[in-house]
Specification:
Blueprint (H helix, E strand, L loop, with lengths): L1 E6 L8 H15 L3 E7 L5 E2 L2 E6 L1 E4 L2 E7 L3 H10 L3 E5 L4 H11 L4 E5 L3 H7 L6 H12 L4 E4 L2 H9 L5 E3 L16 H7 L8 E5 L12 H6 L4 E5 L5 H7 L5 E5 L3 H10 L2 E4 L8 H8 L4 E4 L14 E4 L6 H11 L1 H15 L4 H17 L2 H4 L1
Parallel strand pairs: 1-2, 1-7, 2-4, 7-8, 8-9, 9-10, 11-12, 11-14, 12-13, 14-15, 15-16
Antiparallel strand pairs: 3-4, 5-6
């Protein structure tokens, strides 16, 4: 099968969407399929055997790490040469609209997938009044597809409630080979805690942007004697957060990759995740695979991953002391924390990338065969 994948973000950008797409592309190519990735230009022309067609773009004003790439006629030439059996548009917003257009004009089956809860993001950038209009845009775009995939049951329900049709679940995935509890290291713990490895160590991993609500970790940090916080990642909100956390034992680590990132997860006492806008929360699965107990808001796709009191703790987003209470409980119960670590790893082991990609291949085959209604 030949798949043209349109995405608004890809390498060298680092985020949960790119992580999922990297593994998806690799497993599709490994299974004998051919993939063409159409994405904002990033200097790459190939990844794991897949061709990359980069489209020049400009940095997004509110989020310079993201490039706004406008669809161009050259994409049509690339598709004509590649001859895809199917087009898959990921979070269609700008470049992805080109995927929708070419799918319709070239009569190629179309799948869309929803990974970023953009309507909720708007309020964090002062654009909350546009949420209703944005849902109408999403409905008009996604309803062009033969199938719309989401990465959590909460998002499946959310899209259906807003009039988006033919919605199904694309199961979660995590690299359980790289993220391992055995990678816990005193050296990494000392690095993250800035030379205080004996103190309680909290960690956040992910985009450093307003919608992640990272500032809400500060009261948790201040409520736990001698606790240290490591913020792993980067983004447009970093300067504001550095000012917000000034005077606290917070280490802005920047990006970590590969085994360094896996070791960071495994070396921390608790992964703190206050975001309410997650469609899935891939970093939660990575933390759990590394045996790091999580404390997360009971919102979005997170309840699909975290079972409260079994493999982590959840708190109600409306409770101002919820994250503090949950984190204190986690750190105070050392025996229970060890059980949570083990259960978190067991949960993560259920969700390898190979299985998630096999499921996606099945969806692709159903669409290409024209048997979606029969399968449903």
């Amino acid at each position: 099968m030949r798949i043209a994948l349109f995405t608004e973000t890809f390498l060298p950008k680092v985020d949960g969407i790119v992580t999922r797409l990297r593994h998806t592309v690799e497993h599709l190519e490994r299974s004998g399929h051919r993939v063409l990735v159409i994405c904002p230009e990033g200097g790459l022309t190939e990844y794991k055997g897949a061709k990359i067609h980069g489209v020049s773009g400009i940095p997004l004003p509110l989020y310079p790490e993201l490039k706004l790439a406008i669809p161009r006629p050259s994409i049509g030439g690339a598709l004509t040469e590649f001859k895809p059996d199917l087009i898959h548009v990921v979070n269609p917003a700008v470049l992805g609209l080109g995927g929708v257009f070419f799918a319709k004009t070239m009569n190629i089956p179309l799948i869309a997938s929803y990974h970023t809860h953009l309507p909720q993001y708007l309020q964090h950038y002062g654009l909350g009044a546009l949420e209703g209009i944005f849902w109408e845009f999403l409905k008009a775009t996604h309803n062009q597809a033969e199938l719309n995939l989401c990465t959590s049951t909460a998002m499946v329900e959310e899209l259906r409630n807003h009039g988006i049709e033919r919605v199904d679940l694309w199961q979660r995935g995590v690299d359980t080979e790289m993220f391992q509890p055995s990678l816990a290291s005193e050296k990494m713990r000392s690095r993250l805690s800035q030379g205080n490895p004996e103190n309680p160590l909290l960690i956040y991993v992910g985009r450093v942007s307003p919608e992640k609500q990272i500032e809400e970790i500060k009261p948790v940090l201040e409520a736990i004697p001698n606790a240290r916080l490591a913020i792993v990642g980067d983004g447009p909100h970093r300067d504001a957060l550095e000012a917000h956390f000034a005077g606290t034992p917070t280490n802005f680590v920047g990006y970590l990759h590969g085994l360094e990132l896996a070791s960071a997860y495994a070396s921390a006492d608790a992964f703190i995740f206050p975001s309410r806008t997650e469609t899935l929360g891939l970093v939660l699965l990575e933390a759990m695979a590394a045996g790091c107990p999580v404390v997360a808001a009971a919102s979005g796709g997170i309840p699909d991953i975290v079972t409260d009191g079994v493999n982590g703790y959840m708190f109600e987003p409306q409770d101002p002391n919820g994250a503090i209470t949950a984190t204190q409980r986690l750190l105070e119960a050392k025996d229970e924390r060890e059980i949570l670590r083990q259960n978190a790893r067991i949960e993560a082991e259920r969700w390898g990338w190979a299985a998630a990609t096999r499921q996606l291949q099945d969806y692709y085959q159903v669409i290409c065969d024209g048997t979606l209604s029969k399968a449903a």
